[in-house]
Amino acid sequence: MAVLPVKFTKTKRDKLAQVLWILNWISVVTGAILFSLGLFLKVEINKRKELMAERDIQYVPNMLIAVGLIACGINFLGGKICYDCVDTTKFMRWKLIMLPYIVCTFFFTSCILVGALMCYSMRGELEESLDMGLAVAMRFYKDTDTPGRCFLKRTVDLLQIEFHCCGNNGHRDWLKIQWISNRYLDMTSKEVADRLRSNVEGKYLMDSVPFSCCNVNSPRPCIQSQISNNSAHYNYDHVTEHLNLWTRGCRQALLDHYTYIMQSIGLTVLVIWVFEVREHSRMHLVCMAPLLSITLVFTMLQVQDPLFAGCLQ
Amino acid sequence: MVLMKMKFPFQKRVKLAQGLWLLSWCATVAGAITFTLGCILKTELRRRGEVMDNTDIHIVPNTLMIVGLASLGINYFAGKIGQDALDAGKFPRWKSLLKPYFAISSFFTVLMLLAVIMSYAMKGSLESSLKVGLRNGIRFYKDTDTPGRCFQKQNIDRLQMEFQCCGNNDFRDWFEVQWISNRYLDFSTKEVKDRIKSNVDGRYLVDGVPFSCCNPSSPRPCIQYHLMNNSAHYNYDYQTEELNIFIRGCREALVNYYMGLMNTIGAGVLSVFLLQASVLVSLRFLQTAMEALAGNENTEIETEGYLLEKGLKETIMEYLDPVLRFLLLKNQVQEGEGPDNTVNI
């Protein structure tokens, strides 16, 4: 009775084993993709770490990295189980862990979905973090001699040049802070003394912006100083002049940049989630059904013929 | 006088054919890589094409692309010939094609080496092309309203910021050129009128540079104007100040960048050349060893393989003979009319 069923299903089993092996490796690759996406997001956030205030945004890339690693492990294990379960002699050793494994896969698949949704929800926290971080960076722009803050000038300048932006919300932010260090101000001159006196907090405020706010596409040489004074420059109207400086604020520019990255990552993770759900349900259907039926058959045989069961074991 | 004679027992011939098949596939991949490297170099050169006066340097990436494509074909055939070589039935159909095949493949292999040599030799040409191109770019910086030149300002600004350089040789090039357009100069003010009068050509020259020369790494806000005037700025000495603006010239920066790129590509292409040469040498040995076998019943005897049947000079003359004869044929009329030099009394 046992011979015919084995011969009939051997070719079918081989094909099934091949298909499952391919699916297993595709699942491991998707796990690796998840991991690399998480790593990429973490690197991108750390690149602009100096411009972000302390906020809880590292949990998103960390979660993606963890989920990616677990995905590789779980899919690899699942593939091995599936590969073995078409071979009736080997499946016995997986019998015990089948149920906890299925529970784990359900839990883990929901983690992927949560990870994808978190990518979209991170935006609010990120905006707050950037707002505060940029305000602080601009305040310490002039402190190039203070250890710990000496690279902020370079960071802000390169940011404004690369992202084509100026200030936090716009170029007017620079008019409200002192971005020229006292080291380079001639305190003996009347002009400087007057300006300092006229300010309540004794800050040297100017009607000018740093050079990194200059717009490359402007047809005229950059007007950085006395930007609100039309008479200081020939043929210049600060109200209608749009091409002289970058008009966008850096917070908006950075937010757009990160939103684009996170939306792409979120979409990819959702696609992977759909794929994982399909694969796990297919695997469970393919493996569980014959596994359950074989288990039933063997238990029946054990009950009927103790000697038969003894031979197998 | 045979060049590099070697004995080939049967097993060695089989190993040679197998090795040749493997080498030819590696060389095909290497040929594709050479083509890609040529494309990359060409793209990089075209990106900064506006500051180059001529496109002479493009001969290097063009040659690399041609050689890459040719080597794909050469190595494909080398693999096929290597596969057929051990089969006494299939090998004869390649016999007539082998002489032109070796001529063409040697030509392209030598061309590969020439491309690498050219990438080093053309440094001077690249430098002079950049010198003229940058000089024009700086001169037309202000002409943002002239069609054909309106993007020069943008290009020069972006170039200076990306390569962290200023001017052609250095930042002083900006002092010799009027880079502020007359459209933005108030000719009614005394200052502007004086400055224009003091210049022979009536140009408005300033000792200042555009904002794109500013160095973001400077600890102080950028000083663009009155660069040579220490008293115009507090705590400033133009002779010791190095961080304010970029001191490197853009020509030097671009030449270094492109020479670095071409050196890296040259090293890669050199290794591809060695691989390609080894493919051709193995194929030649296999061909001569199999030809010595011709007509023999027993295919497992030991044969001799060689690189060239005659010496190097005679082989070159043999290949060049038909070419020379073709050229001489054209001049036959003139030869007939000239004096007979071969007669010696």
Automatic annotation (TrEMBL), chain A:
A Pfam short name: Tetraspanin
GO cellular component terms attached to this protein's record: plasma membrane
Family statement: Belongs to the PRPH2/ROM1 family.
Record membrane topology: Multi-pass membrane protein
Main location: membrane
Name of the protein described by the UniProt record: Peripherin 2-like a
Organism of origin: Neogobius melanostomus (round goby)
GO biological process entries: visual perception
Record has Transmembrane helix as a keyword: yes
Record key words, sorted: Membrane, Transmembrane, Transmembrane helix
Parts of the chain that traverse the membrane: 20-40, 60-78, 98-120, 258-275, 281-301
TrEMBL record, chain B:
Spans traversing the lipid bilayer: 59-79, 100-122, 265-286
Example of a GO cellular component annotation carried by this entry: plasma membrane
Cited PANTHER family: PERIPHERIN-2, TETRASPANIN
InterPro entries for this protein: Peripherin/rom-1 (IPR000830), Peripherin/rom-1_CS (IPR018498), Peripherin_LEL (IPR042026), Tetraspanin/Peripherin (IPR018499), Tetraspanin_EC2_sf (IPR008952)
Similarity comment: family membership: Belongs to the PRPH2/ROM1 family.
Lipid bilayer topology: Multi-pass membrane protein
GO biological process: visual perception
Annotated PROSITE patterns: RDS_ROM1 (PS00930)
Species of origin: Neogobius melanostomus (round goby)
Compartment list: Membrane
A Pfam family it matches: Tetraspanin
Name of the protein described by the UniProt record: Retinal outer segment membrane protein 1a
Keywords tagged on the record: Membrane, Transmembrane, Transmembrane helix
